[in-house]
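This protein record is not my work; I was only asked to verify it. Take the sequence as given and treat only the tokens as open to question. I have pasted the whole thing underneath without changing anything:
***
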Amino acid sequence: MKSPLIGLTLPELQEIALAHGLPRFVGKQLCEWLYVKGARSFDEMTNLSKAARARLAETYDVGRMAHATAQHSADGTVKYLFPVQTPADKPQRYVETVFIPDGERGTLCVSCQVGCKMKCAFCMTGRQGFVGQLTAGDILNQLLSLPERNALTNIVFMGQGEPMDNLDAVLRATEILTAEWGWGWSPKRITVSSVGLTSGLKRFIEESRCSLAISLHNPLPAERAGMMPVEKACGIEEVVALLKQYPVFCKNNPEPPESRQRRLSFEYIVFGGLNDSRAHADALLRLLGDLSCRVNLIRFHTIPDSPFRGASEEQMTRLRDYLTGHGLFTTIRASRGEDIYAACGLLNTKAKIKQA
């Protein structure tokens, strides 16, 4: 089986060029074809000689894989099913990727794992369980092979999987997306989400300049533990204490406002009668009061056999207004793609793997 080139960095591609008797600058040409021009095969790399292309093709494959299926929502959202690198002795694995158009904005929700280890009680991916890690190439293929790739303005790592549990691949992918020799995007356009794995969070904050979103969902540790098992190992109070160690996330940040380009947000699915009370709102204010952040309130999308129910629109509005009125900037995120199971918490490829 040939090794894919997508997911390799400029120094690595330069080493491959040299190992094949080619000039070092061929590595830079490969970067441009892979990450800027979106080449699907060596034949498209016309500024490489035919001999060079043939030499590379003996060992390597570009690594692009087209989507297997696409589902279109009534609101314009599109959910794609992408194959990923899979061991030869295993059924073909897939991940779901969601493109969300919104006027001049185009957001892509990418996956970083097949399934997830975190087992959050309200998430279909958590119910799927963990199947396997994605490579950086698998992550990037979701963007590079996206039919709407030229319409993208933002990327969020909020699909299947926990990014801090596959951090090497996530950091490599975001490096390629933001490097001058890669996509050349500003880190401001990329947000990486986490339930709060503190060891990974510390490394991510120090090695990346991308924005960060924390899946909070309940400010009371005992209640959060009943919804999110990760609370027992990495408590939300510990997560917030870690974030406070970095001035970029703090209200008393001495840096000038124009330099504070890295955003911190907290995701909060609102469940009726469970985490939408005044007591929960006050706990959120105490927990996050010293941070420069926003809270995104998310509607709960019902999953089969779930004991949870969503809060009313009236209660979500009341919660938003109370938090914002007390100095914690809060928004209600628009729900997209629920009719095709593309909304928050609904991604799952278990059936697709069994059918493969």
Q: What stands out?
A: The first strand starts at residue 3 and ends at 4.
